[in-house]
Amino acid sequence: MPTKRTYEENLASLKARAVAAKAVKKPPETERQMKLELWPDATRGVPNAVLRGALFGIGRERKTHKKRTLIAAVEGYEIRFKGETFNQTDLDALEGMLHLAMPHPMGKKVEFSAHSFLKELGRKTSGEQHEQLKEQMSRLIGGVVEITDLKAKITFIGTLVHKAYRDEVTGRYVVMFDKDMLALYEAGYTLIDWQQRMALGQNNLAKWLHGFYSSHAAPFAYKVDTLRGLCGSTAELKKFKQVLKKSLTELAGVGAIEAWSIDSDDLVQIERKPSPSQRKHLTKVKAAKRQRI
Predict the structure, then answer these.
(1) Where are the domains of the chain?
(2) Mean pLDDT of 173-198
(3) How confident is the model at residue 35 (pLDDT cuts 50, 70, 90)?
(4) What is the pLDDT of residue 49?
């Protein structure tokens, strides 16, 4: 006959095995937190906070902010920046590197050749373009970004590229992203049509508009002057409006939007088809509104 002690030992053993089995089924914390969702090869996943303001502006002349400087952004975000300002060519490079990092756990090394990377960005591969890439890498590593999600009351503080290595003989790069960048993706991100973006060439405003409107399932009507501030333009309003019209026409030309207009109140109206994921989001929003009625 089993003794009380034997019974207690058996019970303890069963509990221990149950805990062990549960631990096996539960994935490690790092595995659950460090991976980006996979996106199609024809797209580039970009955090909405990066697309909805002047963090990556349209200016070709760069400023250097020696102190934390407030950057224009849509309602819901508060962005500060310290360092040499970014523009759309820097965003091209960042999107390209994030795409290479996407299949791997965040924080792992991502390796690529400068030659193939430049071709992927639609650039030439001469010494000038290699030097441009070096400058962009340095700028992305050196610029300190502070992005606050006002709704979630969470702030990301860091650099968009953690660190990088370069083999001076082979021209190969090794890049690492901080796993904490996942917080920016968890707050919401957009799949950018890479072919459309590349088709816009060197038109920085068109590229900014492409990312900005892609990040909205149902684009709001923004005033011309509001868009001028959000993209970081320093041009006079009249001149900016002229360039804006040309850039919107280019967006329609590559299929990013269906139509656009500017009304008598200077409101920019955009017609575009939402992506499949954005359609699901809109359906959920409509369903939630019906339940509240």
Answers:
(1) 35-275
(2) 95
(3) confident
(4) 95
